[in-house]
Amino acid sequence: MSRHAALDTFGRSGNPLIRSNAFDSTAAFGDEKMTLQGAVNKTSMLLAMTVLTAGLSWNIQTPVMGLISMLGIGAALIAAITTFGFYFFFVGWILKPRPHLAPKTAPIYALGMGFAVGLISQTFEAQFPGIVLEAVSLTFFVAASMLLAYKTGIIKPDRNFLLMLFAATMGVVLTYLANLIYTLVTGNVFFVLTDNGWMGIGFSLLVVAIAALNLVLDFDIIEQGAERGAPKYIEWFGAMALVMTLIWLYMEILRLLAKLRSR
Amino acid sequence: MFFYLFRFKASTKQTDRDDRIDWYGAGSKVHDPKVPADQSSDVDKPVPEMHEPEDRAPDRSVRPQAIPSSAPVQESSPRIYKWLIAVAVVLIVVVLLSFYESTNA
Predict the structure, then answer these.
(1) One digit per residue, pLDDT tens: chain A, 263 residues?
(2) Which among B40, B26, B51, B68 has a CA at the least distance from the CA of A21?
């Protein structure tokens, strides 16, 4: 039984995004069990796909490639929403999560996001030579550190952790959404997102920390799925969630490094 | 290094905890051979309706509407709202400071 009595209420929350046993209804009793090795292999495959299309959009810059990239990014967004669902506060699930679709949607997501990663990385590299290598190295160092901290039990994700991280992640999502609306209306960008002063760097550091902590939840989903013998498709689902967080972490580290270099 | 570490099982310090997040449902037997292979279609299954016996026709003006036990609870905990309000306040402060700095720059 949970030691956090107050959080029992949270556990019974109607919010299916963050309540416990999030995959309760979706965990099928398949013949094949998921394994840790399977999830590792799938993560490697998805990352290889991302790197492949990132390399394409980096090297080939033609109008056709631009169109393919846009289509790829669109497909990646649709694949992500189809798999993880779309939840809105006070409204509930607009689109329910379908983890069993992950074996099909995860490769689409990885290939599609690769185009975005390649385009953005190329833009940053043109401004600050060598920044991409630094960002990639830092991303994997951070991920490895978080993995080590998780595996050894230094970081123990519980419901309190989930609650705080969910709120923080939603805060970042809402900030980016607000910025998008602000940009569409005024043509400007929130100062804190582009500022290379203490506030902009502090904000970027905070977002990097939130993205890094999200990795812990991905590790926990994969580890627990393997322990409990979850269906095989959870390997793809866990790998997709992990790759999604890694891409987010990479983008934020890239932004942070760019702010530091432009000072 | 990342993939090397990934292959190892987490320590018992991590796995043998009472307060773990229960992603797959508490005490659920994930592999039950008696259960049909694919229940993934259950994700979109509509919430079952609850009907009361006709011979005990209730006075609907008095009794509240019955809620099926399998239906998801709709109200969210006040705790999550506290966190969201806290995050919203921090964001507003950050945005205001951002405007303040940009106008003074």
Answers:
(1) 444 443 443 334 444 444 445 565 444 555 688 999 999 999 999 999 999 999 999 998 888 888 888 899 999 999 999 999 887 777 778 888 999 999 999 999 999 999 999 999 999 999 999 999 999 999 999 999 999 999 999 999 999 999 999 999 989 988 998 898 888 888 888 888 888 888 899 999 999 999 999 999 999 999 999 999 899 999 999 999 999 999 999 999 999 999 999 98
(2) B26
Q: What Å distances lie between residue A258 and A121, A200, B73, CA to CA?
A: 11, 11, 45
Closest CA to A49 of A129, A131, A105, A126: A105
Answer whether B66 touches A (CB < 8 Å): no
Mutate to test the interface with B, among A23, A25, A179 (most CBs of B within 10 A): A25
Q: What is the pTM of this model?
A: 0.74
Q: What's the CA gap between B92 and A168, in Å, rounded? A: 14
Helix (H) or strand (E) holding A95: strand A92-95
Q: Compute the distance between CA of residue B68 and CA of residue B48 in angstroms, rounded to an integer.
A: 7
- How far apart (Å, rounded) are the C-alpha atoms in residues B93 and B81? 18
Which residues does chain B have within 8 Å of residue A199's beta carbon, measured at their own beta carbons? 94, 97-98, 101
Query: Could you say which of A147, A158, A175 has the minimum Cβ distance to residue B6?
Result: A147
For residue A170, give the nearest of B83, B3, B65 by alpha carbon. B83
Instruction: Write the DSSP symbol of residue B19.
Output: T
Neighbours of B29 (CB within 10 A): 12
SS3 A47: helix
Contact A171 B11 (CB under 8 A): no
Q: Give the whole-angstrom CA distance, residue A120 versus residue A251.
A: 8
Q: Let me know: does B90 contact A31? Beta carbons within 8 Å.
A: no
**B59 in contact with chain A, both atoms CB, cutoff 8 A:** no
* Whether the complex's predicted ipTM surpasses the cut of 0.90: no
Q: Residue A107's closest CA among A250, A249, A237?
A: A237
